[in-house]
Design a protein that fits this description.
Layout: H1 2-46, H2 49-59, H3 64-93, H4 97-112, H5 116-124, H6 129-151, H7 157-182, H8 192-226, H9 229-242, H10 248-266, H11 268-301, H12 315-321, H13 324-340, H14 345-369, H15 371-386, H16 397-408, H17 410-424
Helix pairs in contact: 1-3, 1-4, 1-6, 1-8, 1-9, 2-3, 2-5, 2-10, 3-4, 3-5, 3-8, 4-7, 5-7, 6-7, 8-9, 8-14, 8-15, 9-11, 9-12, 10-11, 10-13, 11-12, 11-13, 11-16, 12-15, 13-15, 14-15
Length: 428
């Protein structure tokens, strides 16, 4: 999974920079604004299924066909609702015709993403390489199409079509992989009982995901209305260097979550130890990315084969926004931890507070500091929602103390001591 994502990262990062340089800050801002709007509504189709489905596949393998078939059907209906909501928003609230069509094209990809639930099944079977291969192929197809569009000097709308092509390739490949290794889709079934169980278990995660996506994209939405499309373009260029690493959080939890589930079934002390190690690993991984970015990121943005000198205004944004990676990583661990303890409603509470803080700070800081103010607002809201909120409720204070241990380095130093002892051998 890590190898596949790293290859995707390198391909996507370079091609996206080419697209940004070709389109310029204003048109690139339009594309990213449309993506932000479509991405928010597409979260409805995701339904918070990933964590719940992986756990159910591990805990109740005899109900896999029922769980998988029902979840796909629910997700299809949710995708249709998302498409209708974006269509209404585009035609009622967006005056620019190109932006409206971009929103519709981008949200249409969500209808094809219903088979992403099959990939969650692959992960539960420790067969994540199937999804990795397909996603790599889809990213390569989208990237080649984007390069061809730049060569042909295509208009902005076609870069939205490139995203749609990626979803078609990816989901078609996932279905083919499932049919080849696990049988056809006809073996799946739909159950009202399973639907009720899934909806009851996922609605807190769905609401928290919707709110989380909204406040993660609120900065770009508010920059669009408080400033202009160019500001969104500069800001989006900086985010390509920081948010591009956000994949490490769900990757880490997806890869290790089945092992955490089994550890909880066997021994509570082992379960707590593995959770603490996961929090520590999250902080270490975030810092390993942040430090080089602070030294090299501003220089890299302005390279002529990436975004170029015209995006120099993005550099201060990157130097602030990259620090959100620590709390995005921790937040991903928090949601998994709360789910394991049956306290997923607190994921909703923390996301709601984060949204409120983000909106307030954006309204205050964007008029004062422009795009840099939006980056500060996002960082503070992440600190509040992913870390400080966990200290408020008695049921989440265990999470808070685990985060503290990871952040202050006590657990990190212990991890290094254990590793050094193993290297020195039993005689030491």
């Amino acid at each position: 999974m890590l190898g596949g994502r790293m290859i995707q990262l390198m391909i996507t990062f370079w091609v996206t920079a080419m697209v940004g340089r070709y389109l310029g800050p204003e048109s690139y801002g339009v594309l990213n604004y449309a993506r932000s709007v479509a991405g928010f509504f597409l979260m409805v189709s995701v339904m918070g299924f990933e964590s719940v489905l992986v756990r159910r596949f591990v805990d109740a393998p005899e109900r896999t066909a029922e769980t998988l078939g029902t979840s796909i059907w629910i997700r299809f209906l949710a995708s249709l609702m998302s498409f209708g909501a974006v269509a209404a928003f585009a035609w009622l609230g967006e005056p620019d015709e190109i932006t409206r069509w971009l929103m519709l094209i981008l949200v249409a990809g969500g209808i094809f993403r219903v088979f992403e639930n099959l990939d969650f099944f692959f992960q539960s079977q420790v067969q994540a390489q199937f999804g990795v291969k397909v996603r790599l192929l889809a990213v390569l197809g989208q990237s080649l199409f984007n390069i061809w569009l730049i060569y042909r000097q295509a208009p902005l709308i076609w870069f939205g079509v490139a995203f749609l092509i990626r979803h078609v390739i990816e989901q078609g490949g996932i279905v083919w992989m499932y049919r080849r290794h696990f049988g056809g889709l006809r073996r799946l079934s739909i159950s009202k009982k399973a639907a009720g169980e899934l909806l009851r278990e996922t609605w807190p995660l769905l609401l928290s995901s919707l709110i989380a996506v909204l406040y993660m994209r609120m900065d770009q939405l508010m920059l669009r209305f408080l400033m202009d499309h160019s500001a969104v373009g500069y800001y989006a260029a900086a985010l390509r260097f920081s948010e591009v690493w956000y994949f490490t959080a769900p990757l880490l939890t997806s890869a290790l979550f089945p092992a955490i589930v089994k550890a909880k079934q066997v021994d509570q002390s082992t379960y707590r130890l593995k959770l603490q190690q996961l929090y520590t690993l999250a902080v270490l991984l975030a810092l390993a990315i942040i430090v080089p970015t602070l030294f090299l990121g501003g220089w890299a943005i302005q390279l002529p084969f990436l975004f170029g000198a015209s995006y120099a205004e993005a550099v201060p944004v990157l130097n602030i926004h990259i620090w959100t990676l620590v709390f995005v990583m921790l937040g991903s661990m928090v949601d998994k931890h709360l789910l394991m303890e049956g306290n997923q409603r607190f994921s909703f509470y923390r996301a709601l507070v984060g949204l409120g803080v983000n909106i307030f700070l954006n309204l205050w800081l964007i008029p004062l500091w422009g795009i840099t103010g939006a980056a500060v607002a996002t960082l503070i809201s992440q600190v509040v929602s992913s870390f400080l909120m966990m200290a408020i409720f008695p049921k989440t204070r265990t999470v808070f103390w685990m985060e503290c241990k990871a952040l202050i380095g006590a657990e990190i130093s212990s991890l290094f001591r254990r590793g050094r002892a193993k290297l020195q051998g039993p005689s030491q």
